[in-house]
Amino acid sequence: MEEPNIDMSDLRRITSMIQNYSVSCPEKPDKRYLFQIKVYWLSIVTLLSVLVTFVFCVLWTILFKLEDATSTHCGYRVKNYLPTISTAVGNYPVQRFIWTLVIIAHSPIRLIVVGIYYQYYTSIIKPSLHWCAVLLRFLSTVEVCSLVVLSIFTSSDYYSIHEKSFVTFICASELNMVISSILLKKGRITKTVMTKLEVRSLKYKIYFTVFNMTSFAIAGYCFLRHNAYCESGVYTFFALFEYLVVLSNMTFHLTSVWDLAGVSLVIDDNLNLTYR
């Protein structure tokens, strides 16, 4: 029986095909992700939900409860045109229910982002300043928790608890904004290079920090002046600048979409919550 002729060039070609196939075949991943979402979208959705709820509560109160919502110790002789945030979100059943529900629902997501930010800070700042990252994590957690408490315990029913929670919220948020802005500007590891998104984020962080603190100072002045002199319109300006304090705080936190643009939150097949 005659043996077949095997061309060496054909043999080499077949061998090459086998090798190429083995290289191109994808390896099975170690883990499969059951759920994955960009922190970018997570931040936008959570903060947008709070913003929409805030606007709804204020507009609904203006449309249907304005006279009652703007009355103060000065009586009805002093005309006011805007309710305070505490009144708009806490004094009436519909607004109180919606606001409290949204704040409680969005808080776990905020706390997850706080944890991701901690990892972000520790990866880009000097090791000697890692204690600042720990402090920022603590302040952010206090900020979220105090917001929940002051939303549940309204000023009309639990004034003492609401007042203390509000003061805690303001102190934590102001310190958080100032420290994080300074840390990202002065405390970065020398060899790290800021991306265009990080440059933009820091720019707006500084802007909204200054704007927030200025608005808070003006709101405080208007509040004290209204209590002292009962002048028309001063209480309205107090409410307006109070709105600006809250809105600038929201936009400050929205800069996370630039800092954490490439980060995703994932749940693997073992139901472990991680980010990458």
From TrEMBL:
The chain crosses the membrane at residues 39-63, 97-118, 130-153, 165-184, 204-226. It is found in: Golgi apparatus membrane. Pfam families: Frag1. It comes from the Eukaryota. Keywords: Golgi apparatus, GPI-anchor biosynthesis, Membrane, Transmembrane, Transmembrane helix. Residues 39-261 form the CWH43-like N-terminal domain. GO terms for biological process: GPI anchor biosynthetic process. It is a multi-pass membrane protein. The keyword Flavoprotein does not apply. Its main location: Golgi. GO terms for cellular component: endoplasmic reticulum membrane; Golgi membrane. Belongs to the PGAP2 family. PANTHER family: FGF RECEPTOR ACTIVATING PROTEIN 1 (PTHR12892), POST-GPI ATTACHMENT TO PROTEINS FACTOR 2 (PTHR12892:SF11). This is CWH43-like N-terminal domain-containing protein.
